Fold this sequence. Notes:
By secondary structure, this protein is mainly α. It contains 5 helices and 2 strands; from the N terminus they run αβαβααα. The chain has a two-stranded parallel sheet with strand order 1-2. GO terms for molecular function: cellulose synthase (UDP-forming) activity. It comes from Populus alba. Pfam families: Cellulose_synt (PF03552).
Amino acid sequence: YLDRLSLRYEREGEPNMLAPVDIFVSTVDPMKEPPLVTGNTLLSILAMDYPVEKISCYLSDDGASMCTFEAMSETAEFARKWVPFCKKYSIEPRAPEFYFALKIDYLKDKVQPTFVKERRAMK
C-alpha cells in the first residue's frame, strides 16, 4: 500500500504532492493519561515516514498540568535525537517505549557500527 501511495504522490524531479497533515493530541489529567504515553504518541507522530515540512503536531493540555509540561519539554529534547534516528534506520515501531520493550534482536540484520552506537545512545 505504501509503495502505491508513494508512486502516486512522489515523483522524481517533481515536488511532493502529499497533502499537509495536522495532527492534534489532547490530554487532561496526567494521572489518567500518563505523560509517558503522551510523549510516546508525540514521538511516534513526529517520526512518521512523511515529509517533515508537511506534518504538524499539536498538543492540547486542557488540564494545564505542570507534570505534563515538564514531560513534554523532555520529550521535545529527546525528539531531536529520536526522530532522525528513526528516519535514518527505518525504525519500527516509532514510539521508543514500544521499540525498546520488544524482545527482538534488532542487531541481527543491522551490521552498521553506527546503528549499534546510536541505538545504545538512545537507550
